[in-house]
Amino acid sequence: MKLKHYLKLFNISKIDFSKKIGVSNVSLSRYISGERFPERKVLSKIYQSTNGLVDANDFYLEGIPNYELNDQQKAELNNMINSLRKGKLKFIAKAITLIESSLKLHKLQASFLLSKLKDKNDSLRIGITGVPGVGKSTFIETFGMTLIDLGYKVAVLAIDPSSKRSGGSILGDKTRMMRLSVNKNAYIRPSPSQGHLGGVAKKTRDSIRCLEEAGYNIIFIETMGVGQAETTVYDMVDIFLVLLLPSGGDELQGIKKGIIEIADLIIINKADGSLKSTAEITMSEYKNAQTMISKSRKDILPQVFQCSSTENTGINKILSFVKKFEETRKKSGSFYQTRSEQQIKALWSDITLETQEFIENDLRSKEFVKKIIKDVEKNKFDVNNASKIILDYIVKK
Amino acid sequence: MNKIKGYNNWKELASKELKDKSLNDHYWETPEGIKVKPLYTEEDLKNLNHQIGLPGLPPFTRGPRATMYTNRPWTIRQYAGFSTAEESNRFYKEGLKNGVMGLSVAFDLATHRGYDSDHPRVVADVGNAGVAIDSIEDMNLLFDGIPLDQMSVSMTMNGAVIPVLASFIASGEEQGCPREKLTGTIQNDILKEFMVRNTFIFPPKPSMRIVADIIEYTSKHMPRFNSISISGYHMQEAGANQVQELAYTLADGKEYIKSALERGLNIDEFAPRLSFFWSIGMNFFMEIAKMRASRYMWAEIVKEFKPKNNKSLALRTHCQTSGVSLMEQDAYNNIVRTTIEAMAAIMGGTQSLHTNSFDEALALPTNFSARIARNTQLILSEETGICNVIDPLAGSYYVESLTSSIVQESKKLIQEIDEVGGMVKAIEMGIPKMRIEESSAKRQARIDSNEETIVGVNKYKPTEKQEINILSIDNEEVRERQVSRLQKLKKSRDNKNVENFIEKIKNVAGQKGNLLEVCIEASKNRCTVGEMTSAMESVFGRHNLSTKTISGVYKNSVKNDGKIDVIDRELDKFIKNKGRRPRMLVVKMGQDGHDRGAKLIATAFSDLGFDVDIGPLFQTPEEAAKQAVENDAHVIGVSTLAAGHKTLVPLLMESLKNNEANEIKVICGGVIPPDDYPFLYKLGVAKVFGPGTNIQEAAIEIINLL
Ligand code: B12
Ligand SMILES: Nc1nc2c(ncn2[C@@H]2O[C@H](COP(=O)(O)OP(=O)(O)OP(=O)(O)O)[C@@H](O)[C@H]2O)c(=O)[nH]1
Ligand SMILES: [Mg+2]
Fold first, then answer.
1. The pTM is what?
2. Quick one: A107 and A143 in the same domain?
3. Fewer CB within 10 Å: N-end or C-end of chain A?
């Protein structure tokens, strides 16, 4: 860990620390800024006083090109943040692009940007899932317009976290959200499919923060109802909506039972035309089955509603439930508690993700690792010892 | 096993001539999935799926009339309309003097979509791709000096069909022609609008009610008028193969019959006035077979509804040579193509025909190109002797066998539609549109990889540039004229009265009654097309098409001749540089509903590795810019075919500037006359891709642009 970060984390002033290791305040500042490299004796003092958290390597890494942003880059980012706060579309868009980018520099810029954002408590993050074609986008269009009429600012992130597709994407979401997409109080950003779940999750969480900073107070996350995508989305939203089609059991609709169990709100969409009565039946089926639905929230029961997103019926009931949900949970504090828990989950999944990426991108290509693998393959090296050596390397990193 | 005497000898001989190749290599699988053999014999006339019969008699395979052209040749009916009513009127009269026998009105896109010329959403559309008609006054000018009791008039109108047909009927009466005497056709085929033509206004349900209103009204009051022209033409132009064109059109027809019957009409009251419309492309024999198959199948379909009058079973049709087969490059080749297609339409027994002009892929026709197109038909009709024999290809082993295969294949598709509950349902589910787009992507893949030859485009390219004079319309001036005429109209009419009519229309729309009937009176009282439409819209709502996209079809159909590897390499470099794939927003602005190219570009580019955003139809430049900025697209790909580019692209550039997003590149594609390229480049457009663009080459160029 960098000394700078250590001092900040444990809330220790430079003066106190310089006294502790017996150097002048000026020298300490120079060590921190990378102008000077600490002498051997000082290094070991630092190592001891920080319980080994700060070691010699943490001073070496200063000044490696691209590791830190230069002043001009920082100024540009500050500029971006200001424009983003003013709600300028272009800069919100650029910020999300940085977040989604695979370039090292962009990642660095994104973390700088994110470090400057404040945490907002006045937004509502709504997750929406369901099989392709169930009407998620259309529902967001109708529900979103209702919210805009009430004075909210609505943002929509459409993600496809389950896709294993590596090629290009074709994104037509906005054609299903015609009124929202032209409204000045709405921002819609469909994201191309990009690799694995964890990465998409992190990027989406970060994008949510940008959008909140830009003043959007309703954030929809639309995702296809397959695989593990739902629980991932569940862990980044305040309320989780599952859209179903009239008729058919869960299996038929390709929705896993686990998804129904975590839903805060089950919505039978397309309750119109010839499907009206089927929707009625489906609704009562799910209502009856509700006892089987485990309560994912302690303070409010999940509900089943029907609506027609195209004909704008049943939307008001959904709206009042969502409001009640938000109010109840805000009052009891569970709303914020869930968000805190989500932060912690996010932290751990970030760590897992980064480690995985490190293993995939760096470790596998290291010469010594390749050597070890060869030896293990030929039974010259036993797995236990081999993994210890590699782990030791990771820990040092 | 072929039992014809000597067949085996032939086979042996043929194999010898083929040397190392086998006869089986010479089977041609058409895009419809029909296997065509190198040789047909009388064996192939056994077990046909259709009856051949005689002309004028059920099942009408050989033609709807007993004498066909031997009595009277087909009607030469050229589709035309542009700019103002006066201009178009002059053009019609010129045509009538020179061999045209029936009129066919092309309206501009503002009118199609039910907007008056002063509506802000149509600044780029007035008078451009057809004639602007805002009210009965324009209609009066359009037919000035053309006696409507003698001239048959076909009108391609579907979205704003009620106000336009109403104005036409009212105009006829002001001219002194009672509605009973009007002859002609109103297209009134809304189902294919939702599928491929895109000039719908209201949602499907009220739109179907409108169709029924018109069938009902015309069957009672206009006995000489075709109430509908059930059109496959637009499907083929949008990419459908011939079997799809035929099957979906007949399925549409079935749907219209059902809704007229639901209205309480008797089948024989309206079925004889249903007419059809086909596109005729370059697959000569297939087209002839399609037309013969269509007549047989329609007779079969209508029979199920138990008509008493044989006329109800007869399919009568108009044909137009294919526009998509015509190219911008080496444009005079188009005259040859059109001639071949026209011959197919005639051999297939069409009742009327439009032949395209050779400048089809550049702009609306000039007087010169229109004249050649007209003469093509006159030459066929008067110089060749074709008219002297009825259904000359009947009994041909090949043609009968093809006819039979088409019947078989189309029945499969119709069954698929029946199984989901009919065409309205199928359209809601997007099935036919998706299938058509697949065919379109496959065809482009074949062309891009030179598997299908287009002379002058992907083979035998001309070395010299040809100068072709084209028609250019000053859309700004037309709009101003229309707007001032509208203002004058609104000042001179009794506006109280107009308001009453608007209320009446709303009532009829909301409850029962016939919309055409009330709108005829409204037109006479100077209600405009836009006003009548918005009255209905306030009850019905305006329909938004939810765009569905296909993926993988292009990539799977294309042969990699090295270009794909280049693209992959360039993309890798790009991603390493920019941290993401190139992102392109494909937009359609204004009322231009030509989406074949845009859909194709979107699906092909994403197959090739781009991230492609696709915008909804009918965007304004401001909306397109907002979407590009929000999505942080690298490039906006404008697809423009209806001549709106000179108005829309400058507005788009301005909107980008207003969003501080000048770095987003703009490229254009579609029907853009070469003379306009400098204008676009001066605006800052990075590149223009015209008709015939090879998509893979374009992809490489675009990556390099970024
Ligand atoms: C097919 C067609 C139709 C179909 C459209 C089906 C559909 N869903 O798209 C149908 C039959 C419905 C139709 C109707 C009409 N049509 Co039309 N139609 C054509 C036609 C014959 C071919 C267009 C086409 O699809 N070609 C195939 C596609 C793949 O090619 P493309 O779009 O050019 O795209 C290629 C390139 O241009 C480029 N490209 C295009 N866009 C982009 C974008 C990017 C980013 C890139 C990189 C490249 C690129 O790459 C593509 C691949 O090579 C043209 C004439 C012609 N030959 O071009 C007339 C034409 C465009 N139509 C015309 C007219 C007037 C109409 C109507 C308005 C007639 C009327 N008054 O009622 C109607 C209304 C339609 C509407 N709603 O807008 C006129 C327009 C006149 C003008 N510009 O001045 C034309 C030019 C014919 C003519 N000469 O009269 N039409
Ligand atoms: N009848 C009816 N149709 C609806 C309703 N909601 C959506 N649709 C239609 O269902 C189709 C799919 O709607 P979308 O909103 O695109 O569905 P989606 O779940 O977002 O689809 P993906 O993003 O592809 O997963 C469209 O044709 C909509 O018009 C509804 O309430 N009633
Ligand atoms: Mg969607």
1. 0.93
2. no
3. C
**Do the Cβ atoms of B614 and A169 come within 8 Å?**
no
Is the CB–ligand 1 distance for residue B100 below 6 Å?
no
| Segments forming the whole domain that contains residue A374 | 340-396
Burial B69-98, CB ≥16 within 10 A → b, else e: beeebbbbbbbbbbbbbebbbebbeebeee
Q: Write the CATH number for A33.
A: 1.10.260
User: DSSP assignment of B120-142, as one string?
Assistant: GGGTTTTTTSSB---SHHHHHHH
pLDDT in tens, A285-295: 888 776 556 56
**Cα–Cα distance for residue pair B321/B44, rounded to 1 Å:** 29
CA gyration radius, chain A: 25
B27 is catalytic: no
Q: How do the pLDDT tens digits run along chain A, 397 residues long?
A: 888 888 888 889 999 999 999 999 998 988 888 888 888 888 899 999 888 888 887 887 544 444 678 899 999 999 999 999 999 999 999 999 999 998 989 999 999 999 999 877 789 999 999 888 899 999 999 999 999 999 999 999 998 765 556 688 889 888 889 999 999 999 999 998 776 666 788 899 999 999 999 999 999 999 876 666 678 889 999 999 999 999 765 545 556 677 888 889 999 999 998 888 889 888 888 887 765 565 667 788 889 999 999 999 999 999 999 999 999 999 999 999 999 999 999 999 888 888 888 887 788 888 888 888 888 888 888 888 888 888 887 776 6
Q: In residues, how long is chain B? A: 706
**Residues found in chain A:** 397
CA distance B154 to B81: 12
User: How far apart are alpha carbons A342 and B360 in whole angstroms?
Assistant: 61
Atom of ligand 1 nearest to the CA of B699: 47
For residue A171, the CA-to-ligand 1 centroid distance in Å is 23
CB-nearest to B611 from A90, A93, A168 is: A168
Domain boundary among A332, A355, A379: A332
Nearest chain B CA: its distance from A162 CA (Å): 17
Nearest CA to ligand 1 atom 49: B669
- Count structural domains, chain A: 4
Instruction: Yes or no: say if A135 and A308 are a contact pair by the CB < 8 Å rule.
Output: no
Q: Based on the residue annotation, tell me whether B79 is a catalytic residue of this protein.
A: yes
pLDDT > 90: percent of chain B: 92
Question: Is A118:A181 a contact under the CB 8 Å cutoff?
Answer: no
* One domain, residues A134 and A194: yes
Same domain for A298 and A386, yes or no, is no
Which of B137-151, B546-560, B671-685 comes out lowest in average pLDDT?
B546-560
Q: To 10 degrees, the CA torsion angle through B435, B438, B444, B445?
A: -140
Q: Is residue A66 part of a domain?
A: no
With an 8 Å Cβ cutoff, the interface of chain B facing chain A consists of 544-549, 551, 575, 578-581, 583, 602-603, 605-616, 623, 626-627, 629-632, 659-661
List Cβ neighbours of B521 (8 Å cut-off, separation of 6 or more).
B170, B501
Q: What ipTM was estimated for this complex?
A: 0.90
**What's the CA gap between A50 and A208, in Å, rounded?**
35
User: In sequence order, which ranges of B457-514 are alpha helices (DSSP H)?
Assistant: 475-492, 495-510
pLDDT digits (tens, 9 = 90+) for A69-102: 889 999 999 999 999 999 999 999 999 999 999 8
- How far, in Å, CA of B609 to CA of B310, rounded? 56
Structure tokens at B224: 């000489």
CATH number at residue A288: 3.40.50.300
Nearest to A186 by CA among A174, A195, A172: A174
- pLDDT tens profile B204-243: 999 999 999 999 999 999 999 999 999 999 999 999 999 9
How far apart, in whole angstroms, are the C-alpha atoms of residue B695 and residue A350?
40
End of a domain among A116, A135, A150?
Answer: A116
